[in-house]
Amino acid sequence: MKRTQSESLYKDACCHIVGGVNSPSRSFKAVGGGSPVFMEKGEGAYFYDVDGNKYIDFLGAYGPIITGHAHPHITEAITNAAHNGTLYGTPTRLENQFAVLLKEAIPSLEKVRFVNSGTEAVMTTIRVARAYTGRNKVIKFAGCYHGHSDLVLVAAGSGPSTLGSPDSAGVTENIAEEVITVPFNDPNSLEEALHKWGDDVACVLVEPIVGNFGIVEPEAGFLEKINELTHQAGALVIYDEVITAFRFTYGGAQDLLQVTPDMTALGKIIGGGLPIGAYGGKTDIMESVAPLGPAYQAGTMSGNPASISAGIACLEVLQQDGIYEKLERLGALLEEGLQTVIDNHSLPATINRLRGALTLYFTPSPVKNYDDADKSDDILFSKFFNKMLDQGINLAPSKYEAWFITIAHEEKDIYKAVEAAEHAFSEIEKE
Ligand code: PMP
Fold it and tell me: Where is the PTM N6-(pyridoxal phosphate)lysine found along the chain (predicted)?
């Protein structure tokens, strides 16, 4: 597949944009380097690049695009919003309407606040938890990603009871020392950390179903145990549902799994493809936020009519009958097809899937936490990624990401992807 225009645009981009990309996850560094594909148009389940190549898209823009690209209902909502002015700096009726829609879907959001990204949403929940509890420390889980604010760019220390170390230059040791990282699906480590640091812990932050080291579900009772241990320690439970809200069901992972946090951070799907974030939770906790309380958070762009209109339109699409059944049906078809490919070959691989989201790891053993996911073979993934791309299948250029199916995908797209995977596995095996 020729991608000369992409290559030339990437060269130009590198002269003007740091690393040639506006988010590091878009670079092809982890898959052998080279030029990322410059897409020109997205339509339903498909992408068309600047060289005129067509792709079936399983990236879904890292999660938000659950309706497929350029869904007509969302496009119309954005167009109408643009005609009425894109930013007011005043409250609007739309914000009320959207807040009610979100609360109906995720009842633990007694009060919400709209922001502009998942990063902002999570960052603020931590500030609010600190303001509410008067404590400083944060416990999070290894491999979960919560955006790029300082506090969550902290890596695990040498054990579950040790303080973290900076995961990015520019994050200070002082900040890292406020964060403790424990393994996912390991209640004993959480208990140990809370035992050691409990009186200082403001919150335990978790992706209730992990999306950032592939799709990893909590084991039975794990989320309940987080609630129990955290509340015993006098701290708050925060769910980062930036990926999971409206991905698996009309509502959050908390609605699917019937476990309720104190606060929730949202983003991605709720913006229908435009920039957005939101956070919310119990009324008395949320009343710590300005103008009612002492925790400050503000935003010029927050609640802008374009993002809110796109979000409302996206949820309206997701309210239709059969949406999540379709995602389940296509997800099962993809899993079954890929499993047959794995069974037909000798490459070590395993699949995690929930409804329309799936990760193919190049490791033979089950993946239940970050260490398991990390064993996925970098070289095999890189070969697989490039061979899929050359056959017109667009995946995320990282072994830790999920394939996202949208409601625009059809059976034929799944069959094509499986056929491409069969070919890719055969080629890799021959090398
Ligand atoms: N939380 C989770 C679980 C995420 O996956 C992401 C982004 N991938 C974020 C937070 C940050 O969101 P954003 O990129 O919109 O800032």
Answer: 268
The contacts of residue 398 (CB under 8 Å, 6+ apart) are 25, 30, 31
Catalytic residue among 49, 57, 150, 240: 240
CA distances from 95 to 35, 114, 234, 266, 308 (A): 40, 8, 33, 15, 7
* 28-76 confidence digits (pLDDT tens): 999 999 999 999 999 999 999 999 999 999 999 999 999 999 999 999 9
pTM: 0.98
299 with 197, same domain: the answer is yes
Are 142 and 181 in the same domain? Answer: yes
Q: What is the span of the domain harbouring residue 28? A: 1-39
Distance 147 CA to ligand 1 centre (A): 5
What ipTM is given for this predicted complex? 0.99
Query: How many other C-beta atoms can be found within 10 angstroms of the C-beta atom of residue 300?
Result: 8
- Asked if residue 327 and residue 290 are part of one domain, the reply reads no
Based on the residue annotation, tell me whether 268 is a catalytic residue of this protein.
yes
Q: Side by side, which strands form the sheet with 236-240?
A: 111-115, 277-281, 263-267, 236-240, 201-206, 137-141, 179-182
CA angle 327, 253, 142 (to 5 degrees): 110
